[in-house]
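Annex B. Sample input.
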Amino acid sequence: MALRYVQLLVGLFLYGASTALQVRAVVGVSSWTVLTEGLEHVVPWSFGLITVVSSGVVLLFWIPLRQRPGIGTLLNALLIGPAADLVLWLVPTPHGLPARIGLFVAGLLLLAVATACYIGSGLGTGARDGLMVGVHERFGWPLWLARTVIELTVVAGGWLLGGDVGLGTVVAAFAIGPLVQPLMPHFRRFPWSPGREARPAPVTEPAPVP
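Annex B, continued. Sample output.
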């Protein structure tokens, strides 16, 4: 369990770092980050604090949707924001479009690794993913429809508040799923991964008696 918590914490830190890199690239950010940037124009809080508070608000919607958070869900809500603030403080916006595109690509790839890492720990999904699952289970919507409606609503609200919507927003929406999927099996093959201890040991034939 201790190593699963380490994997969770590493994944969450990388998730916050990847979000910060996309923000610094200034070529468009993923849907929920658009909303966070928009809220920065409304409340005098840091990017990370807004991320934490908005995660708490999203978790309130879990109550009528009858979703139950795990420890990973709570740590997700509390830790990604501070990690993003730290990397935003360390990394400036690069000069020139090629450098910004390169930073965005690095952030997107890191986001895929971070997502597979923290979900692979098996300690609970994030507040936003749980919202999608809750809508799917409560109203019978297909998962793709629930995610699409939520993401479009979030992007529209963030854009109206002044969030950064650009080509990167579209790329992130279509690329993150295909990037995460092939990585997931690799982050579930560690000796401490959930379910590994339940797998039967291979049966060996006894050595022949001479």
